[in-house]
């Protein structure tokens, strides 16, 4: 292992399912504690950590759309659900001893700070973990896009997409035992092959600003630590 950190400020993109239990729905406090433990290990290295979390464990807008729901309404519901997840994650991390702030793109002063870029950067500089809730604050944009946007705004060195598999495959490795894993991809390969790394808007945003995307299995032991020291883990997407 190299002795120097490759990344000193990261944006970690978590799916809502990262907080759910075996049933894949709702919030499991044990999963929150597991995530907090992994974040604490990263913070102990002196790395600045910001997080964007999805809401698939609480609300799937696609289900509403299939029943004729208005797209903007479904998206706003999803954005509100991300704030619930952000608060659950904040609580788990605070109990672990991490100083944490939640900032929401949709203002709700009683539970979260409004998203202010310079304030978020100041929190990171002071060693606080910042969780961005509320997506981008706009319908028609995913939390993947919110993650790419916030990563750019806080000048992150890398966007880490945390999943349940150890990288990007040419097909679903959970259903196809012959699926092939990629060690490295370019942004255009990812878009053209329609690989489910992130949505095309998020990938294009990273491509336009040359922000690397690292896809890895959050639940693999010491994986974040290895990634931060530049070990070859997961799938790296760059220019």
Identify the overall geometry.
globular
Binned strand content: 15-25%
Overall number of strands: 11
- Give me the number of helical elements: 8
Order of helices and strands: EHEHHEEHEHEEEEHHEHE
Using the CA coordinates, give the radius of gyration. 17 Å
Task: Briefly say what this structure is.
It is built from 8 helices and 11 strands.
Describe the structure.
It is a single chain. By secondary structure, the chain is an alpha/beta fold. Strands 4-3-5-2-1-6-10-11-9 form a 9-stranded mixed β-sheet, with helices on both faces. A two-stranded antiparallel ribbon has the order 7-8. Helix content is 36%, strand content 19%. The protein contains 8 helices and 11 strands. It has one domain: Acetylglutamate kinase-like (Carbamate kinase). The chain has helices spanning 29-43, 61-66, 71-95, 117-125, 143-153, 187-192, 200-208, 223-228; strands spanning 9-14, 48-53, 100-104, 113-114, 129-133, 158-163, 168-169, 181-182, 184-186, 213-217, 235-238. Helix 1 (29-43) packs across helix 3 (71-95) and helix 5 (143-153) packs parallel to helix 7 (200-208).
Descriptive keywords:
single chain; 239 residues; alpha/beta; Carbamate kinase; 9-stranded mixed sheet; two-stranded antiparallel sheet; 11 strands; 36% helix; 19% strand
């Amino acid at each position: 292992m190299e002795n120097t950190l490759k990344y000193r400020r990261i944006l970690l993109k978590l799916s809502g399912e990262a907080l759910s239990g075996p049933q894949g729905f709702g919030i499991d406090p044990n999963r929150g504690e597991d995530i907090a433990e992994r974040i604490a290990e990263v913070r102990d290295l002196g790395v600045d950590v910001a997080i964007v979390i999805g809401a698939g464990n609480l609300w799937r807008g696609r289900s509403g759309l299939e029943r004729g729901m208005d797209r903007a309404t479904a998206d706003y519901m999803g954005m509100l659900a991300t704030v619930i997840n952000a608060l659950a994650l904040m609580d788990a991390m605070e109990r672990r001893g991490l100083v944490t702030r939640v900032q929401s793109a949709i203002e709700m002063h009683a539970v979260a700070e409004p998203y202010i870029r310079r304030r978020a950067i100041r929190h990171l500089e002071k060693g606080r973990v910042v969780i961005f809730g509320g997506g981008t604050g706009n319908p028609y944009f995913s939390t993947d896009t919110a993650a790419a946007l916030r990563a750019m705004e806080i000048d992150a060195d890398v966007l880490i997409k945390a999943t349940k598999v150890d990288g990007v495959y040419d097909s679903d490795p959970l259903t196809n035992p012959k699926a092939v894993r990629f060690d490295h991809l370019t942004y255009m390969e990812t878009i053209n092959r329609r690989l489910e790394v992130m949505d095309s808007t998020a990938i294009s945003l990273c491509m336009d600003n040359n922000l690397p995307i690292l896809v890895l299995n959050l639940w693999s032991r010491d994986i974040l630590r290895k990634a931060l020291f530049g070990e070859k883990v997961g799938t790296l997407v760059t220019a």
